[in-house]
Amino acid sequence: MKKSRENWGSRIGFIMAAAGSAIGLGNIWRFPYTAGANGGSAFIIIYLAFTFVIGLSVMLAEFTLGRKTHLAAVGAYKHHSKNWTFVGVLGVVSAFLIMGFYPVVGGWALSYIFKSFTGVLSDASAIGSVFEGFIKNPIQPIIWTLIFFGLNVVIVAKGIAGGIEKASKVLMPTLFILLILLAIRSLTLPGASAGIEFLFKPDFSVVTGQTYLAALGQAFFSLSLGMGCMVTYGSYISKKERLPLDALTVTALDTAVALLAGLAIFPALFAFGMEPAAGPGLVFVVVPTVFAQMGGIGIILSALFFIALSVAALTSSVSLLEVVAAYLIDQKHIPRKTAVYSIASIMAVIAVFASLSLGAMSGATFLGVGIFDFLDILTDKIFLAVGGLLLAIFVGWVVKKEDLERETTNEGTVKFVLFNVWYNIVKYIVPVAVAIVAVLGITSIEQKGVMFFGLGVIGVLALFSKKL
Ligand code: PHE
Q1: Is the CB of 22 within 6 Å of ligand 1?
Q2: Element (H, E) at 136
Q3: What pTM was estimated for this model as a whole?
Q4: Per-residue pLDDT reduced to its tens digit, 186-239
Q5: Within 10 Å of residue 277's Cβ, how many Cβ atoms?
Q6: How far apart are CA 462 and CA 87, in angstroms?
Q7: 262 is a domain residue
Q8: Ligand 1 mean position to 127 CA, how many Å?
Q9: Among residues 178, 197, 207, which one has the least CA distance to residue 270?
Q10: 319 touches ligand 1 (CB under 6 Å)
Q11: Does 24 contact ligand 1 (Cβ within 6 A)?
């Protein structure tokens, strides 16, 4: 059984796939507006510190766990102890639920590639209402979401090396080139320096507890941590790979792209005298408005920007679909294609309702919020935080230290000088830091119904998922 399990075809292929998972809407859509709303540079410094101390360590812990067992999220935990199976299950549930809303935004991005050419984005003053009208439309965004799902299914059904890796090897370099081009254009506009200052000149007077909360949440989301995604990708890594180096490379690429997205967006934004703190509409409203003011070249740049955004979203959603598919393949021995087609269909149905919850069905709420927001809060604010916390406790306190050392040094054949530093960070610092953030984050959720529901689901999973 284990012998026939797939692996990544090459180191670069794996790096591109893992970076593809990490680099997503989180970097290009969420990072800029979160940074904008939390004071820019001060947020970025805290974010960088969290990313390279906590995020990097957790990523290495996930890779190590996955490769050690050669099993995806659920199996990797179960292999050690049935009592911990539920942490893997929680990850699979999170991936499933994120796929209920993330592809909706992916669909928006796809449609904006085409909207760039149709002229609807050329009148700067109308762009806000175009976006509003579009996401509330009962049909159009759904069609784009389903197309986005179709792309996911085509890639994941082809498997690891032949599907995810192959697609990532083309898509990721394309993304890097597009973003570099956009950043160069943005940075060379007159007045761009205000944007650079906003990103890099720290003003700590704006830092509050909320800033730390947002920074750690963003680091986890952006690096695809806390839900078994990197455990799953790690389970396909060959025994020859140097895991610490891989984790560092993926973390560095993810951070570079977030900063690059900031450099593509903020200088242009300031050059055209617009507000940085524009919320989730930032890339769909403010960015096209900036492009509209550039004339003809703006059309091309806008299309390139939304191609980049779609690519980023696609390689991330592919990893979410893979987490659920890998569970069915590893634990239930369902053939890959059957697994992918069936779960993607169910996810697509949920996503259709999530899309409708922003418009035609906005009156239909559950625990006080529409489905889109419900899934977002449930996963991002509750499940990822609890998942990350439990992962760190599991790796730091349950898995044997010698086993971790053997796995991260490829049975002692390669050096990992910082092993003890990493081990202690995972064992002591990560659980404390993530626990604080999880408690503060979860208790600050305004929708208390969703909060109790989420905690209840975790409780139920903890009690009943031993057999899964
Ligand atoms: N990291 C992805 C992003 O930045 C989102 C994601 C989260 C993907 C969790 C997989 C798992 O958009």
Answers
A1: yes
A2: helix 127-136
A3: 0.94
A4: 999 999 999 999 888 888 888 888 888 889 989 999 999 999 999 999 999 999
A5: 13
A6: 8
A7: yes
A8: 27
A9: 197
A10: yes
A11: yes
Per-residue tokens: 146: 């389903």
Q: Total structural domains in the chain?
A: 1
Name the residue among 16, 29, 7 with its Cα closest to residue 258: 29
| DSSP conformation class of 305 | H
Q: Please tell me the distance from the alpha carbon of residue 213 to that of residue 225, in angstroms, as a whole number.
A: 16
Measured CA to CA, the distance from residue 183 to residue 40 in angstroms comes to 17
Q: DSSP letters of 205-269?
A: GG--HHHHHHHHHHHHHHTT-SSSHHHHHHTTS-TTS-HHHHHHHHHHHHHHHHHHHHHHHHHHH
**Structure token pair of residue 74:** 């659920």
| Interval 75-86 mean pLDDT | 91
Q: Is the CB of 26 under 6 A from ligand 1?
A: yes
Q: What is the 3-state secondary structure (H, E, C) of 392-453?
A: HHHHHHHCCHHHHHHHHCCCCCCCCCCHHHHHHHHHHHHHHHHHHHHHHHHHCCCCHHHHHH
Q: Write the Ramachandran bin of 81: left for phi over 0, alpha for psi from -120 to 50, otherwise beta.
A: beta
* % residues pLDDT > 70 (the chain): 99
51 Cβ inside 6 Å of ligand 1: no
Query: By three-state DSSP, how is residue 24 classified?
Result: coil
Asked if the structure places residue 413 within a domain, the reply is yes
Calpha distance 19→459 (Å, rounded): 32
Residue whose CA is closest, atom 7 of ligand 1? 224
| CATH number of the domain that residue 283 is part of | 1.10.4160.10
Q: What is the CA radius of gyration of the chain?
A: 21
Cβ(233) – ligand 1 distance below 6 Å = no
Whether 2 maps to a domain, the answer reads: no
Q: Residue 459's domain spans which residues?
A: 11-467
SS3 369: strand
Q: Which atom of ligand 1 is nearest to the CA of 221?
A: 7
Q: How many helices (H) and strands (E) does the chain have?
A: 24, 0
Q: Determine the residue type at 71.
A: L
Asked whether residue 5 is domain-assigned, the answer is no
Closest CA to 43 of 27, 59, 31, 52: 31
